[in-house]
Task: structure prediction
Amino acid sequence: MTQTTPIKHATVAAVLAAVCLLCALAAPASAGEVEDRIAKRLADAVPQFQVESVRPTETDALYEVRSRAGEIIYTTADGQYLLTGDLLKITDSGIANVSEQARADQRKQLLDDYGTDAAITFPANGEQKAEISVFTDIDCPYCRKLHHEIKQINDYGITVHYYAFPRSGPDTPSFFKYVSVWCADDSRAAMTRAKDGKDVPSATCENPVRAQYELGGKVGVTGTPAIILEDGNMIRGYVPAKTLARGLGLL
Result:
């Protein structure tokens, strides 16, 4: 008959303690714990990145990190490995750009938060069927070309909200031209006059031109015109009025 050696109470307690420790280590991190850890690690390692948000992606392996400047990168849960560039996903209908969809969601949120009160708006003629936000520069040739079709765009039922994006930056001639347009008694008429290359009387007032220029940077504007659709997707550059209306499903 085999003899068993009794286990001392102290040994049993040690085993139970070890099991509890392993359970604690294996337990998933609480909601927000991983995100906080990633944010802290990035803040310590790359303080200039200025983390705005951290959230899980569709995958189990990566987290999306957004900066206050609108940049998006990806990181592992421990914040040790970073990925830059677009995250792509294979779907039944082809390749989907997960990163671009995230940027579109971000653009929509930023524009919704900012609102249209400070925009120079050309409303749709008749029933509004769609609306677009356009970051524009007074002196940009293709911005002028787009504006020359503003009546046709409005006739298609599209409302246009103009936001300032002087490509030369703040405190430059193009910047001050936009200030004069915005501060004019009739900003829509002043915009059309400026887009026709005509002089607009110099004017100053409390204005949103710098704030809109900074907003453009946050939503990823790098050139003008930059057309942002209602879902946050961006069309970079000039698009003929008819092509725009067709793309919006209005023709």
